[in-house]
Amino acid sequence: MYLLVAEQLTIMTLIAAVSFVFSKKHKYGEPESRYLSNLLLFVISPCLILNTFNIPYDLEKIKSFGFSMAVSFVVLLFMVVIAAVFIHSKTAIGKTRDSLDKMSFVYSNAGFIGIPLINGILGSHGTFFLMGYIVMFNLFLWTNGVYTISHKIGIRQIFFNPNIIAILLGFLLFAMPFQLPSILNQTIKFFGDLNTAVSMIILGILFANFKKPVKGEKTPFFRVARVVVFRLIIIPVLLLILLKLTINFFDFSDLQKEIILIVFIAASCPVGMTIASFSVLYGKEESYSSLLVSVSSAVCVATLPIMVKLSELIL
């Protein structure tokens, strides 16, 4: 398990490092990161969702998928509450970073770390149920997440968002007695497969354009450390307690317990690349968001295997 997580983080680091060097050499910056962020959020991510649902119809899978979404809803709502309770800055600069901290508490890197990790443990069977979390993740992201970072949200923004449309089309595709034509299917798959690489390329560009603190201002190491400790240790432990109490109260099947484990692993991943992408799209502090993503990704090599082991023993 440890080697699997370490391998994924090594791949992520190498891609980001190449992007960093290339961006430094050619002086790529905000225009490029903004373009790639839009491509990632509005094209690549929807294709990843659609590709997951392009499988044969199965009624039992639909029921279990619904259970996965229900558990994911409870878990994400719980993390939203935790973020609201614990993040309240008093300084002006602290308040500007509060939205990024709150998003870091809630939105993990369930795509890059979670998908290969679950696939390594449970295969494609487990990855399908992980999509229940990814679907609910996107619903929260484009409602709660957008409101958290921009303090406004519109109905049009929710229902006409490509990711939400992809979720609805994905369900429709899954329920149909046929799959997409090969050419269209391969096109969507190729775009979805870009998810990891493009995420890390954006991170490399952000690092290459990291702005040093102005005179008299220090790098917020303590603040970053607090967010990382909550994201990787405190929140997973609290989730373990919540999920264990839930399991004790209800008579879940072995498959349902397995799905709960999958959701827990997804929620215990490091700060999501989405935070860095949103900071670019909404004009927030890009260097701070990239610091949150990179530090939490490095630390999770030690914490995630421990949390997974604990969940296997407790859940």
TrEMBL record:
The keyword Transmembrane applies. GO terms for cellular component: plasma membrane. It holds the Pfam family Mem_trans. InterPro entries: Mem_transp_PIN-like, Na+/solute_symporter_sf. Coiled coil: none annotated. It is found in: Cell membrane. This is AEC family transporter.
